[in-house]
Design brief:
This protein is of the alpha+beta class. The chain has one domain. It contains 2 helices and 5 strands; from the N terminus they run βββαββα. The strands form 2 sheets. Strands 3-5-4 form a 3-stranded antiparallel β-sheet, covered by helices on one side. A two-stranded antiparallel ribbon has the order 1-2. A hairpin with a 4-residue loop joins strand 4 and strand 5. The longest helix is centred in the last third of the chain and has 22 residues. It is globular, with a radius of gyration of 16 Å.
Length: about 110
């Protein structure tokens, strides 16, 4: 699993400083989901990404997906999803992805 946090930078007195996220603040993380997609020979399609995004949004109990505070955005180029959520929400996303990977691995064996 790959996760990259997006951190805001603030110019202060000629220095760049990272702005620390407070408790409950939302932030973005990128999660690789290519291993959860069916094998393909061509470019990634919207339907293939939907096969991960829709179950993710319906399986992770969050009431704010449509509020704009929380979001899941497919990123086709790297077979990833960019998730904007709280720290607790990201923990749920990671747990869901880990569970899905375990299921796929068990089915393959």
């Amino acid at each position: 699993m790959v996760g990259i946090a997006v951190v805001a930078l603030l110019a202060w007195g000629g220095k760049l400083m990272a702005v620390r996220q407070g408790y409950g603040a939302t932030y973005s993380m990128t999660y690789y989901v290519g291993d959860l997609l069916p094998p393909r020979s061509g470019p990634l399609t919207e339907n293939e990404m939907t096969s991960v995004v829709v179950p993710l949004k319906t399986s992770v109990p969050r009431d704010g997906w449509s509020s704009g505070e929380r979001s899941v955005t497919p990123f086709f180029l790297t077979s990833s999803v960019i998730v904007r959520d709280t720290k607790a929400g990201h923990a749920q996303i990671r747990a869901w992805l880990d569970q899905r990977r375990s299921r796929l691995k068990a089915q393959a064996n």
